[in-house]
Amino acid sequence: MTETRTRNRTDERATEEIDHEREQNRCPECSGKLVSDDERGETVCGECGLVVDEDQIDPGPEWRAFDAKEKDQKSRVGAPTTNTMHDKGLSTNIGWQDKDAYGNSLGSRQREKMQRLRKWNERFRTRDSKERNLKQALGEIDRMASALGLPDNVRETASVIYRRALDEDLLPGRSIEGVATSALYAAARKAGTPRSLDEITNVSRVEKDEIARTYRYVVRELNLQIQPADPKSYVPRFVSDLGVSDEVERRARDLLDTATEKGIHSGKSPVGLAAAAVYAAALLSNEKVTQSEVSDVSDISEVTIRNRYHELLEAKEDAIAPR
Using an 8 Å Cβ cutoff, are 33 and 48 in contact? Predict the structure, then answer.
């Protein structure tokens, strides 16, 4: 009974707070929605035009910039923190140019001094084995992501996954490269920009079996919610690499939708289905693409492409056949 009363009071308090926030965002005259005008520093009603608040403090910089170069010159802050660096980008880097603030070359004694400072700076940036481990792994993630053409958000996610694996002590008995590769593979799938296991293996320093084994282990131990790869997510990249038209992409997606409805995608490689759909769509669009070209961009054998190609066309014919 006491728990029920406490819960009711909590719900009433939360409802009162929500109502109070709604009242603050409404015009006192007409109950219209309030809009912030950052240029004039005012809060006005979007319906009746009443000025509710004025002379607001501007949290932005006091200077103006008209291009990216001028903005960089006037900015007095550094880059934002990032998980892709072992120290999150908060440490100091000493440039390697051996030049002073005016661009003049340093003398020999100054160069020796700066070299010693760089050496000690690097030592202080990685104070223990955990930071050295993290620095090596994040460097591997960045190298592989660059080779695969993955965006920055995938690198950030992969770095967070690796940090979690390191914090939860999942590395003993496994290589740094293996866990880093698995983290990148998982991050690419979570972001909807998957790469096949063969593509990942081509840029990694570990074997395919180790990547697959470590990936399953990391996903299970960290309880990562990763959906099965959608064949359609591979289509735009294959279409772009082959240089074919948007019509091919549209037809390929249509073929894959039909395959999913018929259930023939179950138990088959999504990369192979995507490659076969692009090949079939190119033929249906009267665009000249060979199985060998599709095989090169997808890293799938021509035999697999032929088999999936026939299955996709059969599914499409069954879907449009009169009943």
Answer: no
Residue 7: which H helix or E strand, with range? helix 2-24
Is residue 89 within 8 Å of residue 125, measured between CB atoms? Answer: no
Annotated binding site: 27, 30, 45, 48
d(CA 31, CA 283): 60
In this structure, the dihedral spanned by the alpha carbons of residues 95, 99, 100 and 106, taken in order and rounded to 10 degrees, is 120
* Confidence (pTM): 0.66
Give the 3-state secondary structure of residue 274: helix
Helices 152-167, 129-148: axis angle to 10 degrees equals 150
Q: In what order do the strands lie in the sheet with 34-37?
A: 34-37, 42-45, 51-53
Polymer length in residues for the chain: 323
Maximal C-alpha separation, the chain:
89
Nearest to 124, CA basis, from 159, 87, 99: 87
Place of tokens 């074919």: 244
Contact 256, 232 (CB under 8 A): yes
Question: Each residue of 107-144: pLDDT tens digit?
Answer: 888 889 888 988 888 777 777 788 889 999 999 999 99
Contacts of 316 (CB under 8 A, 6+ apart): 255, 258
Of 153, 155, 154, nearest to 138 by C-alpha is 155
Q: How far apart are CA 307 and CA 64, in angstroms?
A: 61
| Predicted confidence band of residue 152 (pLDDT cuts 50, 70, 90) | very high
- Backbone angles phi and psi of 36, in degrees to 5: -90, 130
Residue ranges at the known binding site for Zn(2+) = 27, 30, 45, 48
